[in-house]
Automatic annotation (TrEMBL):
This is 3-oxo-tetronate 4-phosphate decarboxylase. Its cofactor is Zn(2+). It comes from Amaricoccus solimangrovi. SUPFAM superfamilies: AraD/HMP-PK domain-like (SSF53639). It comes from the Bacteria. Residues 9-188 form the Class II aldolase/adducin N-terminal domain. Catalyzes the decarboxylation of 3-oxo-tetronate 4-phosphate to dihydroxyacetone phosphate (DHAP) and CO(2). The keyword Hydrolase does not apply. Keywords: Carbohydrate metabolism, Lyase, Metal-binding, Zinc. InterPro entries: Aldolase_class_II_sugar_metab, Aldolase_II/adducin_N, Aldolase_II/adducin_N_sf, OtnC. One of its GO terms (cellular component) is cytosol.
Amino acid sequence: MSREAELRADLVRLGALLYQRGLAHGSAGNLSVRLDDGSLLVTPTNSCLGMLRPDQISRVSPAGKLLDGDPPSKEAFFHLAVYEERPKAGAVVHLHSTYSVALSCLCHDCAEDVLPPLTAYYAMRVGRLPLIDYYRPGDRALAEAVRAQARNHRAMLLANHGPIVSAASLEQAIHAYEELEETAKIFFILGDRPAAPLDARRVAELETAFPS
Ligand SMILES: O=C(CO)COP(=O)(O)O
Ligand SMILES: [Zn+2]
């Protein structure tokens, strides 16, 4: 099987897994992977991640032009912006999972980082989580706002919308996404009780022991 055929199969298999686990619903969310020639495989617009077909998946050029497959996600431009800013990124995951979206609807005092490092795995897989102002889905201005944060962050949260997470591979991006969703859930379970997130020294120790 070619590398591209393998990646198409991964998008179908892992999209179905996200849907079955309740992390994706309806036709919300989109996934992409970067091919060796710089083009992207991205899920088609208005598609259900639980019911993708390999031949339907869109392939777009680095400039965002459809090369083959169905019309791409309306968010293909923010996927492209993440890849442009993060040369080591091989996959981008954007979903509307419940706890992360709930977090994106709260008022936040400091938009630079909206979820504390409650656990080591959150700090290792996600790190800081900046909040990006609300934009209409598909707005090209959203892609530029994403670009500005992607330079220094592998994950970010779109206000009143949901997270974007990138990593070297699709599996790694999904692992990081799940860590974010579970940590958001823990954040709401803790509620108003005083929590003790990891301090800066412990986070720095993790960054040294497990560089991303
Ligand atoms: O999550 C989405 C918009 O933000 C879904 O859009 P698409 O169906 O165009 O991928
Ligand atoms: Zn979305």
